[in-house]
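Model the whole thing, not chain by chain.
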Amino acid sequence: LNKFIVFTLLLSSLGCVAKANPFHPDIQLLNENGMVWREGQPISQTNSCGQCHDTTFILDSLNHHHQTLSDPLTRLNDALGITSNSALKTDIVECLDCHNPKPEQSLGDLADEQSVIASGKLLLTSPTSDNCGTCHSQRWQADEQRPVSLPNLNATADLQALLFGLTGEIFSAQKISESALNIRNKETLNFSFDSHAERVVACTDCHSSQNNPVQPPARAQSKNLRFDPRTLSAHDYLQRPNHEFGRAHSCTACHEPTGHTWLPYREQHFNKLTCESCHSAWIAAPAFAHVAFKPEPTIQWRGIDEQENIVTGYRPWLLPNAHGRLQPYNVIESSDANNRWWQATAIHHNVNKSQATRACSDCHSKNSVLLRSLPGEPANLNLPTGFISAEGKPNLALAGIYVLGGNTLPWVDWLGLLIVLGTLVAVSAHGIARYLASKRHPAKDTPRERVYMYSRYQRLWHWLQAALILALIATGAAVHKPWLFPWVGFDVVVHAHNILGFILFVNAALALFYHLASGEIKQFIPMPDDFFVRSYQQVQFYLKGIFNNEAHPFEKDPQHKLNPLQKIAYFGLLNVLLPAQVLTGLLMWGSQEWPLLAGALGGLTLLGPLHSLLAWAFLAFLIMHIYLTTTSGPKLSSGIESMIVGWEDVEIHQREKKHE
Ligand code: HEC
Ligand code: HEC
Ligand code: HEC
Ligand code: HEC
Ligand code: HEC
Ligand code: HEC
Ligand code: HEC
C-alpha cells in the first residue's frame, strides 16, 4: 500500500469516529431565496453550504442517481433495464444525507437566534459507510450492537431492499457467524461479511471524489511518475469537490498482489480473472432470481432453501466483462406481460480471503465454476454471439479464454481418439495377419550378421526422448482431463509437464547438434526416389512380403539405419510434429511473458486445442513405432533389444545392395 492511501485511510478512520468538527466554521442557514432562514421556512442546504462550497459544481457533478431520489419501483425498472414512463423523481438528495453521520440531527434545532450553527455543533464528515448505507441497503452498516439481518424480502416498495436484492452484497464488519442471518452452517462461518469493512476501509476510500488530493489518481497521468506533486490544494478541493464518484479505485490501486505465490502463471490468471472473481466467490445472502412486473413486482430469490427455510447464499456466475476479464455477476430474470429478459449485475464487494477460490480444480475441471450453466443470456453484457450454448453453458473460447482441463473442444479429442484407435486397429490387424502367416510359412533362416548399429549417445538419447515423450503424454493427459487423474494435484502435473517439456526441448536441440555435427543427419533426409519407388517397395514388404517371411527390401547398416518409409515418418516427426508441439507448448508456457506473440498466433484458444491434437498424433506415432520394432529382427523383441545394447543382427542380402 502506498503512503497516500495509508494517509487517506487514517483520515477516513478519523472521520468514522463521529465527532463534531471544531475546524468547520459557523454556518449561516439560508432559505430557498438565499435570505437568512427564519423558523417555519424550509432550509436550503444548497444555499447554506453554497456560501463557501461550490454547490452548483457539486450538484452538477453528482451523478444522476444521487441528485434526486426516484421512487423504488422506478429505481428497480432502471436497474433491470426497463425504461419506465412513471419517472417520479421526487426527493432531492441533500448534502447532509451523505455528510452527516447522524441523520436525525435537525439543522433548525441546532441553529441559534441568528440562524447560525456554531462551529462544533453540527457533525460534518466525509460520508461514512452508514451514510451510503441508508440507501444502499442497511446491510452496509457495520454496527456491533445490532446483528446484521435481512431486509424485508417481501417489501417490494423499499429502496433498500430493492438495491440490496440486485446482488445481495453485505458490507459489514460483522462475522457471519454472529449475524442474525439464518444461514446454513453458520457457526463455521467465522469471518466477516467483507474484509474491507472489517479493516475500516469505508465506501469513500474506494468511491472517493475524483479530485480528492489524498486519493491515488484515478488515471495515471504519466507512467514515469510515482507521485505527482501537482495536486489540488486542500482549499480548492474543499471548495469544489468532484462528486462524480461512479468509478471506484481498482483493487490494484491499493494492493500489490504479490502474494498468490501458490498460483502459477499469476499474470495470466490476473489478465483473465478480476480479483473479485476469486475474492467474492460466494455471497452470504439471498439475491433476486426472478422479478415479475405485473404491474407490482413479485420477486423470487436465490440463495434460500425454501424447504428448510434457511439461507444458503449463492455463487455468482463468472462472465467476461467489458474488458474480457471474468467478473462475478448475479443474473436476474425479469418478465412482464409480453417479454422475458435477463440482466447481470456486477459484484465488487463481500471481498474476503477465507472463501477465495483457490483449488485449481474449482476452475480447471469439467465441473469448473467458470462453466456453470446460466439461466439465460444477460442482455446488458454485450457477450459474443453464440456465447451461451443450447444447454445454457458459456462458451469461453468465444471470449478468448481457454481454461485448461475445462473448456476443451470435444471434437479435438474425438478426432485424436479416432486417429489413435485407427492406428491400433491397423496395427492389430497387421499383427494378427502376421501371426497367421507365420503358421503357414515357418521362419526361414535368413543369414544374419551382428553389427554395432547404435552408438552409446544415440541409445541414451533415444531412450531419454522416449521416456520424456511418454511422461509428457501422461502429464499432458492429466492437465487436459484432470478428473480422470484425481490422485494427482493439478499444479503438480502442470509444473511437471513444463519441466519435462524443457528437458525434451534441450534433448532435442542437443540431438540436432549431434546429428548435424556428425553428419548422421543425412540418414534422416529422404531422397527423391525414397518417395516413390523405394517407398513402394517398403509398402509392398509390409503388405505382402512380411507375411511370406521374405527378407527386408533394404539392407540395414550403421550408415543406413532407416528404410525409406521410416525416413519419411521421422522426417515428418522431427520436422513437423516435434517442432510444432515444442512451439505450441513453448507459446502456451510463455503466453504470460509474451502475450502479444502468443496472441498473434491465435492465443490459448487456438494453441491449446492444437497442442492436444498433436499430442494425440504423437500417441498414434508411438503405437505405430513400437509395433514396427517387432518387424525388424528375427524375434519380436529384436528391434528393442538392439536399441538397448547397440548391436543388431541384420540380414545379409544375397542380392545386390539396394541402398544408395
Ligand atoms: C462559512 C463557510 C462554510 C460553510 C457555510 C460551510 N462550510 Fe463546509 N467547510 C468550510 C471550511 C473552511 C472547511 C474546511 C475546514 C475543515 O476541515 O473542517 C469545510 C469543510 C467541510 C467538509 C469536510 C469536513 C471533513 O472533516 O472532512 C465537509 C463535508 C463540509 N465542509 C460540508 C459542508 C456542508 C454540508 C455545509 C452546509 C451544511 C457546509 N460545509 C457549509 C467552510 C464552510
Ligand atoms: C450521495 C452522497 C453525497 C451527497 C448528496 C453530497 N456529497 Fe459531498 N461528498 C460525497 C463523497 C463520496 C465525497 C468524497 C469523499 C472522499 O473523496 O473521501 C464528498 C466530498 C465532499 C467534500 C470534500 C470533503 C470530503 O469529505 O472529502 C465537500 C466539502 C462536500 N462533499 C460537500 C458537499 C456539499 C456541500 C453537498 C451538498 C450540495 C454534498 N457534498 C453532497 C458524497 C456526497
Ligand atoms: C439517497 C440515497 C443514496 C445515497 C445516500 C447514496 N446512494 Fe449511491 N445510489 C443510489 C441509487 C438509487 C443508485 C442507483 C442504483 C442502481 O440503479 O443500481 C446509486 C448508485 C450508486 C453507484 C453506481 C453509480 C452509477 O453511476 O451507476 C455508486 C458507485 C454509488 N451509488 C455509491 C454511493 C456511495 C459511495 C455513497 C455514499 C457516499 C452513496 N452511493 C450514497 C442512492 C444513494
Ligand atoms: C474495496 C473497495 C470498495 C469499497 C470499500 C466499496 N466499494 Fe463499491 N465498488 C467497488 C468497485 C471496484 C466497484 C466497481 C467499479 C465501479 O463501477 O466503480 C464498485 C461498485 C459499486 C456500486 C455500483 C455497482 C454496479 O453494479 O454498478 C455501488 C452502488 C457501490 N459500489 C456502492 C458501495 C457502497 C455503498 C459502499 C460502502 C458501503 C462501497 N461500495 C464500498 C469497490 C468498493
Ligand atoms: C482504497 C484502497 C483499497 C482498495 C481499492 C482495495 N483494497 Fe483490499 N484492502 C485494503 C486495506 C487497507 C486492507 C486491510 C489490509 C490489512 O489489514 O492488512 C485490505 C484488505 C483486503 C483483503 C483481506 C486481506 C486479509 O489479510 O484478510 C483482501 C482479500 C482484499 N483487500 C482484496 C481486495 C480486492 C479484491 C479489491 C478490489 C475489489 C480490493 N481489495 C480493493 C485496501 C484496499
Ligand atoms: C485465482 C484466484 C485469485 C485471484 C484471481 C486473486 N486472488 Fe487474492 N487470494 C486468493 C486466495 C485463495 C488467497 C488466500 C491465500 C491464503 O490463504 O494463503 C488470496 C489472498 C489475497 C490477499 C491477502 C494477502 C495474501 O497475499 O495472502 C490479498 C490482499 C489479495 N488476495 C488481493 C488480491 C488482488 C488485489 C487480486 C487481483 C489483482 C487478487 N487477490 C486476485 C485468490 C485469488
Ligand atoms: C478462479 C479460477 C481459476 C483457478 C482457481 C485457477 N485457474 Fe488457472 N486459469 C484460469 C483462467 C481463467 C486461465 C486463463 C485462460 C486463458 O488465458 O485463456 C487460467 C490459466 C491457467 C494456465 C495456462 C496458462 C498459460 O498461459 O498457458 C495454467 C497452467 C493454469 N491456469 C494452472 C492453474 C493451477 C495450477 C491452478 C491451481 C494452483 C489454477 N490454475 C487455478 C482460471 C483458474
